[in-house]
């Protein structure tokens, strides 16, 4: 503040301030000007040089025209994990619970004048009449609920088929002809919605913890002194602090969460501020899993981590009557778009999904299983135990060494059973979506 | 900001009456505090220090009378009861610390505060805090199940605001007496709603303490209070719940200074050392404050008496035991006397230690001492 201005009465507010409502007569208030939300108008991508349709080119790292070679780098900045996060305010919560709704809406193509009907979860469209690429941001119930950050595609579309082919060739329990016979459709690059959550958790646990102790006792049957292990139980309590950063939950109910989780991790240091240029010519989806629903999923994962941390805090593995209280604090969230290539392939008249992480090239998806290989492997794993135990049986009738055979056979059977269950579960998961 | 114009006072001669009343300026020949009092008060002890006498003397006073006055709400009979209750709680109190002496010395006194009216016009800036609520979670696990409790936390969002203020404030209260804080701590606050327009006859029979903080000295406090008022109104104007880092560059004019007179009964007693100990009673609420000293002399006396009793009992006990050979029943008397010696010996410590401990606590009470 300037005294001379005060004296002269010619006081003016500093730049960037605008007058705000005042509840008291005689007091004038100025507040910083609010940053205007991005315009609702869809962005149309046409080459300024030749008028052809432009799209985001991964190799060029910007919007490019494939006809005249024009390229333009998006005007944005890499924000990484510093990307703004939001608190769970009551206001946000109420807005988020509304979701996007299910209505369709019209987008007017300013290139050819066509009216396009858009699904509410669609952020981008290519006009079927003039082939121009359009990117829109839908009317959001709150500015925070627009996509503000994204990780751009780093993997070029041309490499996806090769990556998928290599992935199909991996693994011994899939059909041998899978790599050669699978017919992979065209990979579609799509930005999928994700929620990220942070939280500090202070977990206080209480449980009966058991400590093993060796004890000598007299066995009246054998009339001998023997040693046995007994467990002393005592109530204990402790506290564990966890800091969970950027736990990701998919915001799309249309893609397999199971497959998406196998695509992790994404390097969120590559997050950039949202610019429609990144979406030009690519598909993008808005969330249809609302923030409260996603937070419920995230919170469930977090509290399980807290529970695991509490168990790790307990010095023995003998625990009973376990209870805990996990106090969450500083919970924040962020809405981002992550790049994924999605495709389907057909094998023996069945369709399977496959996805490629658009940033790292990691591949995940459904893979058919040659079940005869699984059953054969399971039989091979169980056989040693069964054979040795069977061999032991006649000896068991004679006593002495038979018992040793039988015990070894039984142990091998158990080990084979455990391995078999693991293999079976992996095989089932491989086909699951 | 323009230089703030502060009012001047005038010298009131010792023979002049003030503010349309029959009150004359008098002063204490020991603490030099100036009062306005009726003529018959001359020669009486100063109620503020109890060490000097009130004598005629000129006073520096504002010519205009006080604006508001809070009248005494109760008379001597209730003061007497309040003093009796005050004395009752002290064991081994000094001889002079008794209700009769205290009520004889009671003086009703009005003490002053400045009432400042001013326009404030200037530029301000601050951070305004807005409360908002966030949802947090408390997850409880037990018996194999999770239970979710949602917790609402209130947080503050700070936003910069600035602007101009052009407001008028009336009757901002500012201390006019240099010992205001101590006196206020002893007798508590006054209900301002009971204040009436000043009338000269209301001060009859009472002493009126003359301000010893002139407007020139009281202005910094007045300015801070005016700024606080502006700060609070800026917060309200911006619709926030909190404010911080407030700054204001303003002109304060025209300033108008008047007085508010508040009632207090003052009395005193003399402790063991003959030092006066002052007691104050809020003339509106009856809250009483001051040091309640115990008599260390009485303590020593009682201690000595009990010690002598202990010694005598001990001597008799020894004597009784020495004759138990010939008179066996004396052993019982010896035991009883020994017990009496022990109890009275221990009890003799109490009256010595207790006044010392009690007086240490009383010394921590801040009194109005000029």
What does this entry look like structurally?
The complex is a heterodimer of chains A (433) and B (370). Chain A is α+β, with helices and mostly antiparallel strands and 433 residues long. Helices cover 28% and strands 33% of the residues of chain A. Chain A has helices at 3-8, 90-98, 157-169, 178-181, 257-263, 291-313, 371-398, 401-431; strands spanning 17-20, 27-32, 43-45, 55-57, 62-64, 71-72, 86-87, 105-108, 115-118, 124-126, 133-135, 149-150, 183-184, 188-219, 224-250, 272-273, 283-284, 318-347, 350-357, 363-365. In chain A, helix 7 packs antiparallel against helix 8. Chain A is flat, with a radius of gyration of 31 Å. Mean pLDDT of chain A is 84; it is low at 1-8 and 100-104. Chain B is 30% helix and 35% strand. Chain B has 7 helices and 14 strands. Chain B has helices at residues 76-88, 99-104, 180-187, 215-238, 296-322, 330-347, 349-363; strands at residues 10-12, 24-28, 34-37, 54-56, 59-61, 68-69, 107-142, 145-175, 196-197, 207-209, 242-252, 256-270, 276-282, 288-290. In chain B, helix 5 runs antiparallel to helix 6 (330-347) and helix 5 runs antiparallel to helix 7 (349-363). The longest helix of chain B has 27 residues, at 296-322. The radius of gyration of chain B is 31 Å and the shape is flat. Chain B starts with 9 loop residues before the first strand and ends in a 7-residue tail after the last helix. Chains A and B meet through helix 1, strand 2, helix 2, helix 6 and strand 18 of A and strand 7, strand 8, helix 4 and strand 11 of B.
Structural class by helix and strand composition of chain A: alpha+beta
Strand content of chain B: 25-35%
- The end-to-end distance of chain A, rounded to whole angstroms, is 64 Å
Mean pLDDT of chain A, as a whole number? Answer: 84
The portion of residues assigned to helices of chain A is 25-40%
Question: Biggest sheet of chain B, open or closed, and with what strands and sense?
Answer: 12 strands, mixed
Distance between the termini of chain B: 37 Å
> Most extensive interface, residues per chain?
A-B, 41 and 41 residues
Q: What shape does the CA trace of chain A take? A: flat
Measured as a percent range, the helix fraction of chain B is 25-40%
Strand content of chain A: 25-35%
């Amino acid at each position: 503040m300037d005294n001379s201005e005060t004296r002269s009465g010619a006081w003016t507010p500093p730049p960037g301030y605008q007058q705000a409502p005042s509840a008291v007569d005689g007091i004038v208030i100025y507040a910083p000007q609010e940053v205007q939300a991005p315009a609702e108008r869809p962005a149309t991508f046409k080459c300024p040089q030749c008028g052809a349709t432009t799209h985001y080119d991964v190799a060029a790292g910007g919007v490019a025209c494939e006809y005249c070679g024009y390229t333009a780098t998006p005007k944005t900045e890499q924000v990484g994990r510093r990307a703004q996060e939001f608190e769970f305010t009551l206001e946000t919560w109420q807005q988020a619970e509304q979701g996007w709704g299910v209505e369709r809406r019209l987008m007017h193509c300013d290139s050819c004048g066509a009216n396009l009907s858009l699904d509410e979860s669609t952020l981008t469209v290519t006009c079927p009449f003039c082939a121009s690429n359009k990117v829109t941001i839908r009317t959001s119930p709150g500015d925070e609920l627009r996509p503000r950050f994204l990780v751009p595609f780093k993997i070029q579309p041309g490499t996806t088929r090769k990556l998928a082919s290599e992935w199909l060739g991996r693994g011994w329990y899939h059909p041998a002809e899978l790599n050669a016979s699978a017919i992979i459709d065209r990979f579609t690059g799509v930005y999928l919605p994700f929620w990220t959550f942070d939280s500090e958790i202070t977990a206080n646990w209480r449980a009966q913890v058991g400590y093993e102790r060796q004890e000598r006792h007299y066995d009246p049957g054998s009339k001998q002194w023997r040693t046995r292990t007994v467990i002393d139980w005592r109530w204990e309590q402790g506290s564990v602090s966890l800091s969970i950063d950027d736990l990701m939950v998919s915001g799309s109910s249309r893609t397999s969460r199971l497959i998406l989780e196998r695509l992790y991790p994404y390097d969120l240091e590559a997050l950039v501020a949202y610019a429609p240029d990144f979406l030009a010519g690519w598909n993008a989806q808005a969330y249809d899993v609302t923030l409260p629903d996603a937070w419920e999923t995230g919170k469930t994962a977090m509290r399980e981590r807290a529970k695991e941390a509490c168990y790790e805090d307990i010095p023995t593995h003998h625990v009973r009557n376990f209870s805990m209280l996990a106090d969450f604090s500083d919970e924040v969230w962020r809405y981002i778009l992550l790049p994924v290539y999605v495709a389907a392939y057909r094998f023996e008249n069945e369709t399977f999904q496959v996805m490629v992480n658009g940033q790292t090239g990691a591949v995940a998806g459904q893979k058919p299983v040659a079940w005869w290989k699984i059953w054969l492997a399971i039989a091979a794993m169980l056989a040693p135990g069964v054979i040795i135990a069977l061999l032991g049986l006649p000896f068991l009738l004679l006593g002495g060494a038979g018992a040793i055979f039988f015990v070894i056979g039984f142990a091998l059977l158990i080990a084979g059973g455990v391995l078999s269950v693991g293999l079976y579960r992996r095989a089932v998961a491989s086909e699951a979506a | 900001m323009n230089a703030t114009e502060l009012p001047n006072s005038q010298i009131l001669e010792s023979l002049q009456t003030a503010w349309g009343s029959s009150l004359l300026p008098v002063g204490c020949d020991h603490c030099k505090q100036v009062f306005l009092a009726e003529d018959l008060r001359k020669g009486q002890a100063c109620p503020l220090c109890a060490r000097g006498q009130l004598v005629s003397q000129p006073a520096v006073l504002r010519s205009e009378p006080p604006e508001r006055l809070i009248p005494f709400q109760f008379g001597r009979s209730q003061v007497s009861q309040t003093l009796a209750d005050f004395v009752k709680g002290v064991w081994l109190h000094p001889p002079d610390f008794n209700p009769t002496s205290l009520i004889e010395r009671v003086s009703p006194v009005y003490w002053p505060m400045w009432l400042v009216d001013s326009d404030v016009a200037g530029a301000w800036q601050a951070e305004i805090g807005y409360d908002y609520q966030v949802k947090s979670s408390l997850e409880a696990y037990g018996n194999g199940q999770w239970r979710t409790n949602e917790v609402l936390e209130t947080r503050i969002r700070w936003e910069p605001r600035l602007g101009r203020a052009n407001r008028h404030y009336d009757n901002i209260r500012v201390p006019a007496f240099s010992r205001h804080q101590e006196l206020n701590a002893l007798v508590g606050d006054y209900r301002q709603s009971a204040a009436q327009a000043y009338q000269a006859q209301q001060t009859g029979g009472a002493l009126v303490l003359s301000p010893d903080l002139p407007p020139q000295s009281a202005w910094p406090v007045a300015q801070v209070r005016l700024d606080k008022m502006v700060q609070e109104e800026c917060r309200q104007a911006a619709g926030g719940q909190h404010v911080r880092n407030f700054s204001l560059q303003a002109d304060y004019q025209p300033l108008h200074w008047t007085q508010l007179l508040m009632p207090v009964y003052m009395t005193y007693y003399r402790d063991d050392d003959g030092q006066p100990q002052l007691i104050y009673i809020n003339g509106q609420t009856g809250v009483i404050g001051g040091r309640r000293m115990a008599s260390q002399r009485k303590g020593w006396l009682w201690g000595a008496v009990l010690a002598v009793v202990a010694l005598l009992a001990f001597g008799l006990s020894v004597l009784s035991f020495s004759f138990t050979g010939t008179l066996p029943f004396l052993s019982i008397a010896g035991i009883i006397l020994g017990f009496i010696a022990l109890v009275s010996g221990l009890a003799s410590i109490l009256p010595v230690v207790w006044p010392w401990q009690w007086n240490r606590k009383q010394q921590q009470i801040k009194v109005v001492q000029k």
